[in-house]
Amino acid sequence: MRVFRHLYFQVLLGIIIGGLIGYFWPAFGTDLKPLGDAFVNLVKMLIGPIIFTTVVVGLAGMGDLKKVGRVGFWALLYFEIVTTFALIIGLVVANVFTPGAGFHATAASLDAKAVASYAGAAAKGMGMVDYLMHIIPKTFVSAFAEGDILQVLLLAILFGMALGRLGDHGRPVLNLLHDVARVFFGIVSIVTRVAPLAAAGAMAFTIGRYGIGTLAQLGKLMLCVYLTCAIFIFAVLGGIARGFGFSLWKILKLIREELLIVIGTSSSESALPGLMAKMERAGCARPVVGIVVPSGYSFNLDGTCIYLTMAAMFIAQATDTPLSLSQQIGLLVVLLITSKGAAGVTGSGFITLAATLASTGHVPVAGMALILGVDRFMSEARAITNFIGNAVATLVVARWTKDFDLTQAGEILADPQQANAGASTAAR
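RESULT FIELD:
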């Protein structure tokens, strides 16, 4: 059957098979963890070179350096507005449904040792100045060796601007990097073929390690997180997409393979190269894709923002820690800062939560032990919301800055006639 040839069906099948293995043979399912980890590491290995070559080629070929600053400004403005909405929505839902009510957990009943490693990692967290200084790599090569997306992005912007100023003298280097970029995307297509196997291994580990039983204990919290993420995707992101002339359903159809990879691996970073390729295919200019997508993975984590507010409120409710309106607003302000340092990798949200609770001082950090067992299950909701949020952000910023080709975007526009209108305008 033709459907078996599609990657999205293969990944979906892998998720189902992995879930069944983890449920019926939990020990064997736990042993399959390296399959998912290996795939994520393979993709992360390619992210740095892909971002560098894509951004350099885009910026050097664009010529207008003022446009780079304009794209960056609108992207950061969009990120701040939308992530603030996500934090507020999570806070409101947590107050309305109170998922932690009735637990009555005490300090004596909490296993502080279970979250000691996360609290320790959070204690080593960087302040704002340290965070900004960290964006500057120690050496040119270290940015790629450490796999820091923002460091690679900084190098790419500087390299692309300098290469663009060389004019015709830099043309051989530009052509070479263009061909190198095609090679790396070719490697991505090869690596992606094993995505179904990776999704099966990752899902088998999750179910086998943590078990379905943990879901029942904290089902209300999980339901609230997934419901809030769904509302945010279809109401907020859907409304934003519609306002800029896009159809959210068509966007989801365009990136369906990447969405299933994100669900299977619980990491939005595993589908970053695919997202960049799809956004260019949808009509976004390469420089916009190269700037918005990588920076969005650090500054536009909508799902992580929802999770952080709801988890913090859940712990406060479960430990009978009253939070006044001013304290909740203070928590929101702290999250506006700490959420920007969370990466798109599994587990980073839990470390960020520990840093947030420690900095506010109102909610006991040991309370994180209550949600440790289900954090992995909620990571899918975080990752998928982060991923869709960055897809919409790229399209919006491209449309905002007029770096969008309507003739290529017919398959994701809410009104296909817009593409025809754009083609007619271009012809005139």
